[in-house]
């Protein structure tokens, strides 16, 4: 958005509203800008978005696993119960290719089969380094901790 104020170029958020007398072109421009919006969203807003794998839809965002020490979202909980009874798996945010705010979809660069066969996530079980190793090995991706100093973070589910 840019600009010298908290809200960008407008002193108050109301200054960003489209006037009711705006031309159709102005409204179309605003809609296009909002569609390309990459600003931060709350986990509550994204919960329920459909997960689109490389080869089709596979489930929906059911929650998030937070790293309380690093203040980071470590995993997205993917519920595949619409496709397979009751299974929930984890996907790392780094594996997300894009998010469509207008279509409420999260696109991941993984196949449906890879997600379907991913290690099951059970909220009541702690996420151990052994579980994480299995998760990253299954998806054939390098683990996040290779790029960070080694520490054991405490994880807690959010938005479930």
Q: What this model shows, in words?
A:
This protein is α+β, with helices and mostly antiparallel strands and 160 residues long. 19% of the residues are buried. Strands 1, 2, 3, 4, 5, 6 and 7 form a seven-stranded mixed sheet that branches. The chain has four helices and seven strands, in the order ααββββββααβ.
List the helices and strands and how they pair.
Layout: H1 24-35, H2 43-46, E1 50-53, E2 56-67, E3 72-79, E4 88-91, E5 96-100, E6 105-108, H3 112-116, H4 129-139, E7 155-158
Parallel strand pairs: 1-6
Antiparallel strand pairs: 1-2, 2-3, 2-7, 3-4, 5-6
Descriptive terms for the model:
globular, 26% strand, seven-stranded mixed β-sheet, 160 residues, alpha+beta
- Give the SSE string: HHEEEEEEHHE
Distance between the termini: 31 Å
The fraction of residues in strands falls at 25-35%
Question: C-alpha Rg, in Å?
Answer: 19 Å
Specify the overall morphology: globular
Give the low-pLDDT segments. 150-154
Largest sheet: 7 strands, mixed
pLDDT average, as an integer? 78
Per DSSP, the total helix count is: 4
Assign a percent range to the helix content: 10-25%
Judged by helices, strands and strand pairing, the structural class is alpha+beta
Give the number of DSSP strands: 7
């Amino acid at each position: 958005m840019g600009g010298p104020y908290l809200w960008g170029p407008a002193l108050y958020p109301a200054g960003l509203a489209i006037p009711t007398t705006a031309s159709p072109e102005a409204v179309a421009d605003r809609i296009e800008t909002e569609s390309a919006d990459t600003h931060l969203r709350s986990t509550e807003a994204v919960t329920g978005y459909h997960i689109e794998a490389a080869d089709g839809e596979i489930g929906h965002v059911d929650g998030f696993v937070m790293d309380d020490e690093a203040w980071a979202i470590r995993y997205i909980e993917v519920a595949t119960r619409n496709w397979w009874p009751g299974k929930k798996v984890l996907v790392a945010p780094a594996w997300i290719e894009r998010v469509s705010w207008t279509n409420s979809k999260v696109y991941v660069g993984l196949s449906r089969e890879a997600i379907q066969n991913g290690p099951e996530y059970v909220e009541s079980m702690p996420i151990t380094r052994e579980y994480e190793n299995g998760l990253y090995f299954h998806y054939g991706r390098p683990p996040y901790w290779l790029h960070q100093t080694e520490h054991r973070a405490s994880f807690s589910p959010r938005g479930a």
